[in-house]
Write a structure and sequence with these properties.
With 655 residues, this protein is of the alpha+beta class. It is built from eleven helices and 43 strands. Strands 8, 9, 10, 12, 14, 16, 17 and 18 form an eight-stranded mixed sheet that branches. Strands 40-39-36-37-43 form a five-stranded mixed sheet, with no helix packed on it.
Length: 655
């Protein structure tokens, strides 16, 4: 524990880097806890570290978002309650191309089969969330209600237009004016995670997913969100195991939302690139939608070129991302996304383009598959994975029944190196439900791996490995210290149960490995990683002393007893010397006076009951001197309070 700021300044002037240590946005996720425990943990950590959170999560994931310094990040990563600390990356609505025009039944609604000639579908019984820039709640063509604001604006109303446009494609009313959606009049929940400029952060998106998931777990069944549309994304590499191995908090949140029963429909992105590097489009648990240019709402490719973009009818949109990896091909589907006319802010309408416009067509189809008016659809009561399977099977069934119904670039007429999926359609039926995969115990296909050079004080990171088996699979991880490569020589390191571990002095010369336990309803399987090389000694850079652990006092503080100074742990260039100045804290006072004693031990004088003791120490090497203060010792034990020490000799304030 350091002395008051003014005294420290007299010893070591902070460097420019220390004085202006930048804070950056991070997401902190806890390690396997309950929502109630998560809230308590957040309160504890916030108090301990003096952190101001920007978001707090307690359903889809447990944790918080905040701006943190590098030292706070390091401390949180060492906290056994914390599973991951990752950067909070920017997220934005997928790009828009404004155009002119209007249509009471937009081409995309006709092309997906949601409207035929003058007939449209009925309102779905499913609740649909639009996780976006919000929705204009007063738009007369929308049945929109306030859900959750995660931007700090204080409203779920749309200040951009993007979310309102998405909402209209899903559920614009069949009211004789404006446009109609896939499921006209369906209740749409506004979840605002992006600002009026169409951008936001991953933590805001997680906040929205967290709220949507909470509707499935509260006592109000009327607000249960069944389908959520995310026409947004950011750059992120693909990962397995629901993001646990790399600490992807948004992936964890999506997986927990899916487990709660939410079907997530996501835009593929508008970079004309492989969607493998776009999140959440690259998450295998979502239904990812690519975009098709459709000029007339009809198959056959006879609609010419779209007036807004010049793209050819029944071709993949020029901007649309696509799949190349088998893992991504398994969850993509296509829908019209160019020159889509829909609702806009100001009670208006506008035609724009993007995979953001393709995605809500499929979100509407998912809601339609759950309920068409008073009729339950084939997706009713199904898991999100089954809903995704039904929608993709319906698309491939339509292509098989009418080969000309597709587009150039679908699996019947593929483009080299690019997969856009089959065109979404309403051909779903109970027969389209894919057969469930046989339930099996976890099977390890790639064992855990430890990354990093093993040395005392240098953090290592481990994966949980790659697994197959009946979902959901949960994982437990333990770090072990070994004397040889033989498993019988290993012992578990207490408290080391997260993917990160920093070797301590006791590990020097030993080997380290991780032991992973995978569990599902069918069984439990344990695997271990290969051991690391022997842990090397700490590499200490040349420089002044650096305090690593707080000095303490041992001994019983009674008159006549002898107390001993424990200097704590220091890094820095050796040799290093320590000087101690003992102080006495009178009962009830937070000001302690120097007792005139120096040295590593101190004999307690005859003092009143309730007196406490503390020492100030100086650690010095050839690069400089640093002062630190011990924990306070009293009959009730050690305390981490920071009393003010007065009366120190001049030597204690010189470097």
């Amino acid at each position: 524990m350091s002395l008051p700021f003014v005294l420290l300044l007299a010893l070591v002037a902070p460097t420019a880097a220390q004085a202006a240590a930048p804070e950056r946005p991070y997401i902190v996720v806890y390690d396997r806890t309950t929502p109630a425990a998560a809230k308590a943990t957040t309160a504890d950590i916030v108090a301990d570290e003096d952190i101001d959170t920007t978001q707090r999560f307690g359903t889809a994931v447990q944790g918080f978002a905040a701006k943190l310094s590098s030292s706070e990040v390091a401390e949180l990563r060492d906290d056994p309650r914390v599973a991951a600390v990752t950067r909070d990356i920017p997220m934005q609505a997928t790009g828009l191309v404004p155009v002119a025009g209007a249509d009471s039944v937009p081409t995309g609604i006709r092309r997906t089969g949601a409207a035929v000639n003058a007939s449209v579908r009925e309102t779905s019984s499913a609740n649909v969330a639009v996780i976006d820039t919000g929705i204009e709640l007063g738009h007369p063509d929308l049945n929109a209600v306030a859900g959750k604001d995660c931007t700090g604006s204080g409203t779920t109303n749309d200040g951009n237009g993007h979310g309102t446009h998405v909402a209209g494609t899903i559920g614009a009313r069949n009211n004789g004016s404006g446009v109609v959606g896939v499921v006209p009049g369906t209740k749409l929940w506004a979840v605002r995670v992006l600002g009026s400029n169409g951008s936001g952060s991953m933590s805001s998106v997680i906040c929205g997913i967290d709220w949507v998931t909470s509707t499935r777990k509260d006592t109000n069944t009327a607000n249960d969100i069944a389908v959520a549309n995310l026409s947004l994304g950011g750059g992120a590499a693909p990962n397995d195991d629901c993001g646990r191995t790399v600490g992807d908090a948004m992936h964890m949140a999506i997986c927990n939302g899916v487990a709660a029963g939410v079907t997530f429909v996501v835009a593929a992105g508008n970079s004309d690139a492989d969607l493998a590097n776009a999140a959440p489009a690259n998450y295998p648990e979502v239904l990812t939608v690519t975009s098709v240019a459709d000029a007339d709402g009809l198959p056959g490719g006879t609609g010419g070129r779209l007036a807004c973009s010049g793209e050819a009818d029944d071709n993949p949109a020029s901007y649309s991302n696509y799949a190349t990896r088998a893992a991504d091909i398994a969850h993509v589907i296509a829908a019209p996304g160019s020159c889509i006319n829909s609702t806009w802010i100001g009670r208006g309408y506008r035609a724009i383009s993007g995979t953001s416009m393709a995605s809500p067509h499929v979100a509407g189809l998912a809601a339609l598959c759950i309920g068409d008016g008073a009729t339950r659809g084939p997706c009713f009561g199904k898991t999100p994975a089954q809903v995704v399977g039904i929608l993709r099977k319906a698309a491939s069934d339509q292509s098989a029944a009418a080969p000309s119904s597709g587009f150039l670039g679908d699996p019947t007429r593929p483009l080299t190196g690019r997969t856009y999926g089959y065109l979404a359609n309403t051909r779903f039926s109970a027969a389209s439900t894919p057969a469930p995969a046989p339930a099996t115990a976890p099977v390890n296909t790639a064992k855990p791996v430890i990354s990093g050079a093993p040395s005392v004080g240098a953090a290592l990171t481990a994966t949980t490995g790659t697994w197959t088996g009946a979902a959901p699979i949960t994982y437990g991880l333990e770090w072990q210290r070994c004397t040889t490569a033989a498993a019988t020589s290993c012992s578990t390191i207490a408290g080391a149960t997260t993917v990160s571990y920093t070797p301590v002095a006791a590990d020097q010369g030993r080997l380290l490995r991780v032991r992973v336990t995978a569990r599902n309803t069918r069984g439990t399987v344990v695997v271990v990683s290969d051991p690391t090389a022997a842990v090397a000694a700490r590499v200490v850079p040349a420089g002044p002393p650096v305090l690593r652990s707080t000095p303490t006092i041992s001994g019983t503080p009674r008159p006549g007893a002898r107390l001993t100074a424990n200097p704590g742990t220091w890094d820095g260039t050796t040799p290093m010397t320590f000087t101690y100045y003992w102080a006495i804290c009178r009962p009830g006072s937070n000001v302690c006076s120097w007792a005139g004693a120096t040295g590593a031990t101190f004999q307690v004088p005859n003092v009143p009951a309730g007196t406490r003791f503390v020492f100030v120490m100086i650690a010095q090497n050839r690069y400089g001197a640093v002062m630190a203060q011990s924990m306070v010792s009293g009959l009730s034990g050690l305390s981490s309070e920071t009393p003010r020490v007065v009366g120190l000799p001049p030597a204690a304030t010189r470097s």
